[in-house]
Amino acid sequence: MESLVSAIIPTYNRQHFLREAIESVLQQDYSHYELIIVDDGSTDATRDLVAAYPVAQYLHQKNQGVSAARNRGIAHARGSLITFLDSDDLWLPHKLSAEVHLLEERHDVPVVYSDEIWIRSGRRVNPKKKHQKYGGMIFEHCLPLCIISPSSVMIRREILEAVGTFDESLPVCEDYDLWLRISAYYPIGFIEKPLIVKRGGHGDQLSQRYWGNDRFRVQALQKILGDPGLRPPYRQSAAQELIRKCRIIENGFRKRGAEQEAAYYQQLINRYQP
């Protein structure tokens, strides 16, 4: 019997992108899925747009952020496999079938993700070397920045039950936090061919709303360093990355004359310094 996949699209005032995202789900060559759209308090015509797609389950909530929207979708989902699609991204037609196949073949792998095509301001661009992707025990590769796009993953439900869902206290880098918690203990499957299209360069991207996104990655690193079960080599690598990020953030605050904030990151450096 085919595994039921729960496809979750969180969205907020993305009517202009959402239709194409939905269509990319409907064009999948794997049909045993449910589509859940979580409207995080949109004020545009998102509800009317979704109503045109009877296959989609529509959930509405007051605006709480992308983590709360994804978590609402997870709580509502019936599938044993969970997958996400940001409303400004697209899936290629073999996305679901390729990832289901890998998870059915590799019972030791709780998460699979894929390579991706990048579109910035309507033009295709090549990712930099620092965005290179890996499979296996990739915790240390996940420390510098988030190499796993939420739109590219498929996750076994039981792993989310084991490690927890998205941290709703993080306005950005919530995916970085979750991948650290999973990759610290489990191998990650990777499909080298692109299965998604990531579209960026528009002003409403969360990653562009905040100065110094590494501040939120530091919070995630503090969380994982507080895990008593973290392996010593991983603990050392995570502490080194936290110190590196704190030095950059501290310098940024000092340039802005924000001495109190700079002092906080200096304290973190002192705390985690070997």
Q: Overview of this structure, please?
A:
With 274 residues, the chain is α/β, with parallel strands linked by helices. It has two domains: 5-205, Spore Coat Polysaccharide Biosynthesis Protein SpsA, Chain A; 214-272, no CATH class. It is built from ten helices and nine strands. Strands 1, 2, 3, 4, 5, 6, 7, 8 and 9 form a nine-stranded mixed sheet that branches. Helix 2 links the parallel strand 2 and strand 3. The longest helix has 24 residues, at 232-255. The chain is globular and about 55 Å long. It starts with a strand and ends with a helix. The relative contact order is 0.13. The mean pLDDT is 94.
Strand content: 15-25%
Radius of gyration: 19 Å
Task: Give the CATH architecture of the largest domain.
Answer: Alpha-Beta Complex
Low-confidence stretches: none
Query: What summary fits the major beta sheet?
Result: 9 strands, mixed
The CATH H-level superfamily of the largest domain is Spore Coat Polysaccharide Biosynthesis Protein SpsA, Chain A
CATH topology of the largest domain: Spore Coat Polysaccharide Biosynthesis Protein SpsA, Chain A
N-to-C order of helices and strands: EHEHEHEEHEEHEHHEHHH
Q: What is the mean predicted local confidence, pLDDT? A: 94
Helix content: 40-55%
**Judging from the principal axes of the Cα atoms, what is the shape?**
globular
